[in-house]
Design brief:
Layout lengths: L2 H16 L16 E6 L16 H5 L6 E3 L5 E3 L2 E6 L5 E6 L13 H13 L11 E8 L2 E6 L6 H5 L17 H4 L7 E3 L9 E6 L12 E6 L3 H10 L4 E4 L2 H8 L5 E14 L13 H10 L2 H9 L3 E3 L23 H10 L6 E7 L6 H12 L3 E7 L2 H10 L5 E6 L5 H8 L13 H12 L2 H17 L3 E13 L3 E3 L13 E3 L2
Parallel strand pairs: 1-10, 14-15
Antiparallel strand pairs: 2-3, 4-5, 5-7, 6-7, 8-9, 9-10, 11-17, 12-16, 12-17, 13-17, 18-19
Helix pairs in contact: 1-12, 8-10, 14-15
Length: about 500
């Protein structure tokens, strides 16, 4: 991954984490089946699919279809591609495309459009461009048949085609500077209504009368940006918005007391300390797995979850989420709070007097309570935690470009794809910036990538267990988010995404 792509990907992750700071009322909406108004805490800087990232996918789904559709439970179903098939070694993926589909200006969707979009996405420098790093070439045999040639098997490729990498825009717009940035041209169920849209405040989509597929239940969808969750809650209670995702515990408690509201819980992000310096380049102590295990044993996850999240979540010692095959419920509580054992491990590792660990802090991610809790837990075993206060922009540069810190506390989305987790956190890249590996990782990662379904499942579970026992990371807990509607909307959470797909809203019965 290039530095540019790495920094872009991390900037997106930091931006998603910053959403926990909350979000202010900037738009209005009306209830009823003809109109759906969704409140959001983040928004894309561009509506060009080449710059799309998963955290802002609903903005794109309204105007653009993906090649595959990801159902709420994570299953993949046909969309612009009606069928797909791999060759024996899974390095060639053949897609059969839907006939009779047109872009907004009437141009036909075909194999050439798929080729142009995928090549552009890979080279476009977007935060998720790395997803197509294994894509060697795209061959469009004719209007309805496309073949993707891969440098090596990529178990997440179909997942990517249901996400940002699978969004299809009109290639005729590619040469028109900044056209797609504010004027989407896709095959999707809605068209952006520019007369009612105010970029940065609200985006209004009206139904595409010529859509090839099943109509969604709403004539219009409005996505309104808010900069704090208190305003979102007020908007829900006064009917300004119909649906929202609440992340902070206080606001979840506030909305649950209103009998008019309908709520659905979802565990998605985990909060924890991502250790980068497992080779001890910056903090030599972290090279010893006993030290990393000691840090895990030092954290009082139960108390932290209660004090910071009002017990809205589940403590965990693993980075794999419940929707993955690598997840092992027994590993959630692998590390109990045991300062005495942690001190013993530090003595065995030669750090009886402890050491100093300096970490960056973005206050919107690490609030005062969390900062104090972690510092207290580490101090109890002799580790001095020094926080370096940064803003979001400087954090991206100092952490991921300058590599100035040994780790960072972050909120990380838990993909439903095992390979996405492995590729993001284990293979060399943004979150394994020093390229740490060992014999077990080198043995298991290729099996996850190239093995049969059974071999891959066994290997990813073994890999997860190894990462936990070696203390590669220090997760705290998975956070419970709350999907809320004003009572007029039914919301289905989306596997692998914090926010629902636009297909996951329907009028409440």
């Amino acid at each position: 991954m290039t530095t540019t792509t790495r920094t872009g990907a991390v900037a997106a992750c930091v931006a998603a984490s910053l959403a926990l700071a909350g979000c202010a009322d900037s738009g209005t909406g009306s209830a009823g089946s003809s109109q759906l108004d969704i409140a959001t805490m983040t928004f894309p800087q561009s509506l060009d699919p080449a710059q799309a990232v998963g955290s802002s996918l609903p903005f794109f789904q309204a105007a653009y279809d993906t090649l595959l559709k990801r159902e709420p439970d994570g299953r993949l179903s046909p969309m612009l591609a009606t069928s797909w098939k791999y060759n024996a070694d899974r390095t060639r993926l053949s897609l059969t495309l839907r006939k009779g589909v047109k872009f907004a200006d009437g141009t036909a969707f075909d194999g050439a459009a798929v080729k142009a979009n995928m090549e552009r996405f890979k080279k476009g420098g977007g935060a998720d461009a790395k997803w197509l790093k294994d894509l060697e070439s795209v061959e469009a045999a004719d209007a309805t048949h496309v073949t993707l040639d891969l440098q090596q098997p990529n178990p997440a490729m179909l997942f990517y085609l249901s996400d940002a990498a699978g969004l299809m825009a009109n290639p005729k717009k590619f040469d028109q500077a900044d056209s797609l940035k504010t004027t989407p041209d896709g095959t999707g169920p809605y068209r952006l209504d520019k007369t009612k849209t105010t970029i940065g405040t609200k985006w209004v989509y009206r139904r595409n009368a010529d859509y090839w597929g099943r109509r969604l239940p709403y004539e219009n969808i409005t996505v309104s940006f808010f900069d704090n969750e208190t305003a979102i809650v007020n908007g829900l209670k006064t009917g300004q918005v119909n649906a929202a995702l609440l992340q902070t515990a206080d606001q979840q408690v506030s909305i649950e007391s209103d009998p008019r509201m309908k709520t659905v819980k979802q565990e998605f992000d985990f909060q924890g300390l991502l250790l980068f310096d497992r080779d001890g380049k910056l903090t030599p102590a972290l090279k010893d797995p006993r030290v990393r295990q000691a840090l895990n044993l030092a954290v009082d996850r139960e108390t932290m979850l209660g004090a910071i999240r009002q017990n809205r979540g589940q403590i965990t010692s693993q980075v794999f989420g419940p929707d993955t095959q690598g997840y092992d419920k027994s590993l959630d509580r692998y590390y109990s709070h045991d300062p005495a054992k942690a001190k013993a491990l530090l003595r065995q590792a030669g750090y009886a007097k402890g050491f100093t660990l300096k970490l960056p802090r973005i206050s919107a991610i690490v609030n005062d309570a969390l900062a104090a809790s972690l510092a207290t837990d580490f101090k109890a075993i002799g580790v001095e935690l020094v926080w370096d206060d940064l803003d979001g922009a400087s954090a991206v540069r100092k952490v991921f470009t300058d590599r100035a810190y040994s780790g960072m506390v972050m909120n990380m989305g838990q993909s439903s794809s095992d390979w996405v987790v492995v590729d993001e956190l284990v293979t060399p890249g943004a979150f394994n910036m020093f390229g740490t590996s060992d014999a077990t990782v080198r043995e298991l990662v290729p099996r996850v990538r190239t093995g049969t379904a059974e071999q891959a499942q066994q290997s990813v579970r073994a890999l997860n267990e190894h990462l936990v026992k070696q203390g590669w990371f220090v997760p705290f807990y998975r956070m419970t988010y709350l999907h809320v509607s004003d009572g007029t909307v039914k919301i289905s959470p989306q596997s692998g995404m914090a926010v629902p797909s636009i297909y996951n809203y329907s009028p409440a019965k």
